[in-house]
Task: inverse folding
């Protein structure tokens, strides 16, 4: 089946630094990728939707200047957490879908990236 | 607006008991998809089932079964003869035009 990878799986960084997380669809072209954030013992919350070649759409309350999303190709989307702070520590999960603007009938989730900001 | 409610925060059962996880959703979309995912301690989401809004047939897969009732906007998940390996957090999710909305999750603990 379809596989989505994320790199790195874990990252620890100092406060104030920027961290880039990659999400790759390994065996299919992902026209749309989604980024979710999950705090400990909480649910997944959609942060943003990115379509290849266009600007990402951010959910309410998510700072677009802090969470930079780039979807430069049909197999790669990156999330950059700029000037990370301890409150950004979370589990970041991406998913990839192929259905364009139709309802998201199938999303393939990556294994997640655990970010810890000291 | 889309919303998924999983009222049960935590459930604890003894092995071999049956357990039902509730899920109620809200959406204005006429076409949508409902999902159940399992999240073990590793964090990786495990896909369990997808159901589209036009298909109200219930489904059984081994010890798992799902009851989709559009009239009550519910999509409940039953595990029959639970096992310790079923212990995890289970998420119900709704997929519409913009991304996927997850419920708060139900933490299931199956004790031996």
Result:
């Amino acid at each position: 089946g379809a596989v989505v990878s994320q790199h790195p799986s874990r990252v620890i960084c100092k406060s104030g630094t920027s961290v880039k997380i990659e999400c790759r669809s390994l065996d299919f072209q992902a026209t749309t990728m989604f980024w979710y954030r999950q705090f400990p013992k909480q649910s997944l919350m959609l942060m943003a939707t990115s379509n290849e070649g266009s600007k990402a759409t951010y959910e309410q309350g998510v700072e677009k200047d802090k969470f930079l999303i780039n979807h430069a190709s049909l197999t790669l989307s990156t999330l950059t957490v700029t000037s990370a702070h301890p409150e950004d520590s979370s589990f970041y999960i991406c998913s990839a879908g192929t259905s364009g603007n139709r309802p998201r009938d199938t999303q393939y989730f990556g294994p997640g990236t655990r970010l810890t900001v000291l | 607006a889309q919303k998924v409610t999983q009222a049960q925060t935590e459930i604890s059962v003894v092995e071999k008991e049956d357990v039902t996880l509730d899920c109620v959703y809200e959406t204005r979309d006429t076409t949508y998809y409902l999902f159940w995912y399992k999240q073990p301690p590793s964090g990786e989401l495990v896909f369990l089932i997808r159901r589209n809004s036009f298909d109200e047939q219930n489904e059984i897969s081994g010890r798992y079964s799902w009851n989709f009732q559009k009239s009550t906007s519910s999509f409940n998940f039953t595990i029959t003869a639970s096992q310790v390996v079923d212990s995890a957090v289970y998420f119900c999710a709704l997929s519409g035009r913009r991304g996927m909305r997850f419920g708060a999750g139900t933490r299931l603990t199956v004790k031996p």
Remarks:
- DSSP finds no helices and twelve strands in chain B.
- Chain B has a mean pLDDT of 93.
